[in-house]
Description:
Layout: H1 3-16, E1 20-21, E2 24-25, E3 40-47, E4 63-65, E5 71-73, H2 77-90, E6 94-98, H3 108-111, H4 116-125, E7 127-131, H5 141-149, E8 171-172, E9 176-177, E10 188-193, E11 196-204, H6 208-211, E12 221-222, H7 225-238, E13 243-249, H8 274-281, E14 288-290, E15 297-303, E16 309-315, E17 321-329, E18 341-346, H9 355-372, E19 375-378, H10 394-407, E20 414-417, E21 433-435, H11 436-442, E22 448-455, H12 456-464, E23 477-478, E24 482-487, E25 490-496, E26 499-500, E27 506-512, H13 513-516, E28 529-536, H14 537-547, E29 559-560
Parallel strand pairs: 3-6, 6-7, 7-8, 11-13, 13-14, 14-16, 20-27, 24-29
Antiparallel strand pairs: 1-2, 3-17, 4-5, 9-12, 10-11, 15-16, 17-18, 19-21, 20-23, 22-27, 22-28, 24-25, 25-26
Amino acid sequence: MPASTRRVAFVLAAVLAVALVAGVAVWAAGSPGGPGAGSSTVRLITFNDLHGNLEPPSGSSAEVSTDDGAEVEAGGAAYLAAHVNRLRGEQPDSVLLSTGDNIGASPLASALFRDEPTVELLDRMGVAASVAGNHEFDEGIDELRRIVDGGCHPADGCRFDPAYDGASFPVLAANVTGADGRPALPATQVVEAGGTRIGVIGATLSELGDLVSPDGIRGLTAGDEVAAVDAASRELTAQGVRAQVLLLHQGDETGPTSGADAGPSACPVEPGGPGSRIAAAVSPDVDAVFSAHTHQQYVCSATDPAGAPRPFVQGLSFGRLLSVLDLAITGDGDVDRAATTARNEVVTRDVAPDPAAQEIVDRAVAESAPLAGRPVGSLAGPLPRAAAPSGLSPLGTVIADAQLAASRGDGAQLALTNPGGVRADLIPGPGGQVTYGQAYTVQPFGNVLQTMTLTGAQLRAVLDQQFTVEDGPTVLQTSSNVRYAVTGDRVGGIEVDGTPVTDDGRYRVAVNNFLSAGGDGFDAFAAGTELVGGPVDLDAFVAYLQATPGLTPPPTDRIDRG
């Protein structure tokens, strides 16, 4: 976009903006006006963080705030496809994109078949390009390439179809390189709609090493997002591609919301978020930034280095929202940002599901049903994953208790687990029953439990890191025999089984292999010694459910936050 056009766009968008959050103006979602003479409209439709959710999510994971502040149940792959079809019907010149984490951390109906049903779904929907999220790397770069290129898994074979032919769309990552320094994945894809070429750039978060187990990213480096995007943008510009958008698998957190402020197109982002920092810093030639990873909903704008605002949006997760960007394309193929509009739309369940998508969902659910439906325990009430003010959740605490029980034979005295490994609420069915499929949805990663020895001082250093890691705090879920107090960003008064922890005492701590390798920035676990491997976390969780029928949700007040 020429500098003169950007100046005009900046003035007009400043008039249209309705709020300002940490220097990021709220984009004029659905603002009046449209393309001028000689221009046209291209609609970009995106979703993010689907995580193989073929079936409609349940519990709190299903709830979405509407524009009037009401809560409705949303999501489900067949409904997602139906709403995409509707949006395309409104604007034939449309492109469907994904901002990553399509696969990984998936419910059993997709994960049992190595997420091949989800890729088939995205193909049927007509996804044109996606960025690689951190979970695309869960099984390593070779498996990701198989997912894209096709072919049967070397160990499991083709489990969903006799021959798996891969994805018809590229998975992008401009900032990921292999051990040889060469790009591990493509940086860009040029798509065409309405006679306009649109350059799509993909970048994943540079903190990839903190979020993926070491085996998943061995030999890979995730570099600075801004530098990689700028280089990709320059290449597109050199090719004469003037309309450019960024698929960024990074995003912002949002602050407290209520009423209309909680709507899907509001901009309640907290100041200084990593997504908005990147969105403000990348090349002025990038006209919009679709974000992801934080599972939040917002429609904001970020001011580019030339002083012009551009849309910065995210559409929640699990297929509950679609982000819609109507690009106003000028006669020379550039973007008129002042006439461009952005919004999020709820994927409601009051429409007829798309038949082709529903066929995929039904087949995956039916073929996984014998394992998914097996009863494994019962609950006296729901176990939510949402954290209490202490930072603990009922479900997180139960999982930590399960990991402690499974590691007692290795001398474990307490257990700690990462909240990001808890993926969904555990809502019992009739009679309080819990199935294997539900347990899998809660703990889908297959992490291996490990028990290590830490001194009391080293244990306190680990707990201190909850409040000092980048983009924290990240409160580790503790087994029910642990108590401590927090003052500022320091932990004190640690007790295990009612006995104070001493600095020179030695304590056996059970964690998963993701944390023991420094996941989520907890590199203080590297001090651990006498490491012993244990069972898979899901197996430990299932065994605990089986051993504690009628389990009652535990209290979450064992951390004193003052």
